[in-house]
Design a protein that fits this description.
Chain lengths: 320, 365
């Protein structure tokens, strides 16, 4: 056994230093290799490539509400200009950032806590692990409806309990108040996501060598110092992957806000995807919705690029 | 440096005794090796001394202080692990500094101690590297260095050489011995390799099944094993053991094999054999004390050559004596071949006799 922990954070190969011959020449030279993957590429182009292209194309047009696409009018960057200068875009972006940052942070922290707790031996560990996995495996739609009822101002358990225990005089109207709606949804989102972080980090914890923890114990490190100096460095890779996935999932969230509040009240829980959906299928403004989607796409790609770069930086240093 | 005393130490896991009433004293400055096969309890014993495992019974004293309930960090010990256990994300310098940082020493003090330890171990040029950029031998030195900077009262080492290749292991063995002599450190060293124990230790504690079998100098353990386990564990190749039956002919005693040959015993060995709890007696002989004859010789017993293993300066020959195997060492110039009929002569002054029932060494009454 070695104590080397390289490559635990996902195997992204370091870019080759040699200049690669151009794509066309490679295809000609290894044409039968490419022939084998051609069917897959064709399918991918059809179901992924074309929709992306069509979305980008539509984003430069004003589309008629009757969906007669032959009557669409080219407007250049007008859709983008309209979106980026609108107050609603700023509000929705603000909501999306709050939603993503707070959800990701607490899902990660709670997941880490749960993973650390489950990583030690105790009676009933298997049962607890199964229970903590429930939020992750349960359908998001079902969970959203259940939570909607839990929050309900007249019939909700949460409101009733807070009255019964004397925290409030009357049930709080969680989902109909512009100040409590978004936090209430974030709570549901964290509940839904923390078990994903827990599974990932629990797997990461298995890679922490016991002997290192014992060595740190002999060296005089207390529990917190052992966690910080030994456990955390081993969780770095898996943490970055987990956070990246959580951020992407949260930026793309739709089910929980759509089902529980539909973006309301007064846009208090409107985030990017609910806004795009509303624009496309509510107000039938495909051109605007496409431009919105392209903006989101660019943001996500940039984010992905920086994360992959951060992830592979360590690997490059190792191969030097 | 300090003395380590184990008094009736017990460690149980459920009903299983991993360490069963072990008592031993490691004198100040002594190098003691805990040896035994896998699962004998040697590493558990070391963990108990370190405080990494909770003791189930008995007492452990380090430097005259009862440490049963003390945390590892308060026992003033340093430990070297089998896989070196270097912190992979820290440089060599930070690895060495870590135990001192945990003790909240001043920065200048830490730097001084790290540099002096690095100098002793000749790793000064490696201080800025990460552990993965070091060879196995270098990692081993860093692990030793991390133990050394603490200036501990006792060094505990858990199979520190078993991850190294054969050549490096021999070299590090010499260095470790030198390290011990220079520092006059108290060292408790766990190994499954009896050769490491014999070559390095002042005393060796042979363990088996959680019990301490024998605790003595390597020479005494080698010359006077207390039971069949120790006899067969210490020495390479192992001592040959031949189960026989003691028979009396008037005042003379002989050992008889199932095949029918008899080996007359000297008066002293005869008294030993008669002390056994039954007539089952096991004859033990080291390869160097056994002679091989190609023709029938008085006092020699018949056998058949099984394998011949030339090692260069010595040739080991395994001879079937009935169903038991006896190993004989020969000068390489002597030629024997498999299936050859030979006669084995035992040296009465150098054979060991064990009670076939209790497996304990038989002593002259």
């Amino acid at each position: 056994m070695t104590i080397d922990v390289a490559h635990q954070g996902g195997a992204v190969p370091a870019p080759s230093l040699r200049r690669r011959p151009n794509l066309l020449r490679r295809i000609v030279r290894h044409w039968n290799d490419y022939a084998y993957i051609a069917p897959a590429i064709v399918v991918m182009l059809l179901v992924i490539g074309y929709p992306i292209y069509y979305t980008v194309e539509l984003s430069f047009f004003k589309t008629p509400p009757n969906l007669a696409m032959s009557q669409k009018v080219f407007v250049g960057f007008d859709n983008y200009r309209a979106i980026l200068t609108s107050q609603s875009f700023r509000d929705v972006t603000y909501n999306t950032l709050i939603w993503t940052v707070v959800s990701t942070f607490f899902a990660y922290v709670l997941g880490l806590g749960a993973a650390l707790a489950l990583n030690r031996e105790f009676l009933g560990r298997g049962v607890l692990r199964a229970v903590l996995l429930v939020p992750y495996v349960i359908s998001a739609v079902a969970a959203s409806y259940v939570w909607k009822w839990l929050y309900h101002s007249d019939f909700g358990v949460i409101g009733a309990l807070s009255v019964q225990f004397g925290f409030t005089d009357e049930p709080i109207n969680f989902l109909d108040n512009i100040y409590t709606a978004l936090p209430s949804l974030i709570v549901v989102n964290i509940w839904k996501e923390f078990s994903f972080a827990m599974i990932m980090l629990l797997a990461g914890l298995q890679t922490v060598p016991d002997q290192l923890l014992r060595a740190a114990q002999v060296d005089g490190a207390n529990t917190w110092q052992r966690f910080w100096h030994v456990t955390m460095p081993h969780l770095k890779g898996v943490s970055m992957v987990t956070i990246l996935l959580l951020v992407v999932t949260n930026l793309n969230s739709f089910i929980i806000p759509w089902i529980m509040t539909g973006g309301g009240p007064a846009g208090a829980t409107d985030i990017w995807i609910t806004q795009i959906y509303q624009m496309a299928f509510g107000r039938i403004r495909f051109g605007m919705a496409s431009a919105y989607s392209v903006i989101l796409f660019i943001v996500m790609m940039a984010l992905g690029y920086f994360y992959v770069k951060a992830l592979t930086r360590g690997d490059e240093a190792k191969s030097e | 440096m300090a003395e380590v005393v184990l008094n009736e130490v017990v460690k149980t896991y459920g009903d299983i005794y991993a360490v069963n009433h072990v008592s031993l004293t490691v004198a100040d400055g002594e190098f003691v090796a805990l040896v035994g096969p896998s699962g004998c309890g040697k590493t558990t014993t070391l963990s108990l001394i370190a405080g990494l495992n909770e003791i189930s019974g008995g007492e452990i004293h380090i430097g005259g202080r009862l440490v049963n309930d003390l945390d590892p960090k308060d026992r003033d010990i340093a430990m070297v692990f089998q896989n070196y256990a270097l912190y992979p994300n820290k440089t060599v310098f930070k690895n060495l500094a870590f135990p001192l940082q945990m003790r909240k020493l001043a920065k200048a003090e830490i730097e001084r101690k790290v540099l002096s330890a690095a100098k002793v171990l000749d790793i000064t040029h490696l201080l800025e590297r990460k552990p993965r950029e070091l060879s196995g031998g270098q990692q081993q030195r860093v692990a030793l260095g991390r133990a050394l900077v603490r200036d501990p009262r006792v060094f505990l080492m858990d199979e520190p050489l078993s991850n190294l290749d054969a050549k490096l292991r021999v070299q590090m063995r010499t260095e470790l011995k030198r390290f011990h002599q220079d520092l006059e450190a108290t060292v408790v060293y766990v190994t499954h390799d009896q050769l490491e124990a014999v070559t390095m230790a002042d005393k060796m504690a042979v363990m088996h099944g959680g019990f301490l079998q024998q605790y003595d100098s390597p020479k005494n353990v080698f010359d006077n094993p207390v039971n069949m386990f120790v006899a067969s564990f210490v020495g390479s190749p192992a001592m040959s053991l031949v189960p026989l039956e003691a028979v009396s002919h008037g005042s003379d005693v002989a050992l008889r094999s199932p095949e029918g040959w008899e080996l007359p015993l000297s008066p002293q060995n005869a008294r030993k054999a008669l002390g056994a709890t039954s007539n089952q007696v096991v004859l033990g002989a080291r390869h160097s004390t056994v002679k091989l004859h190609s023709a029938q010789t008085p006092g020699a017993v018949p056998g058949v050559v099984y394998t011949v293993e030339p090692t260069g300066d010595i040739t080991f020959v395994q001879v079937f004596l009935g169903t038991s195997v006896v190993i004989v060492s020969l000068d390489p110039s002597v030629t024997v071949h498999p299936d050859q009929k030979v006669w084995i002569e035992f040296d009465q002054d150098k054979i060991h006799l064990f009670d076939g029932a209790t497996e304990l060494a038989l002593a002259a009454v």
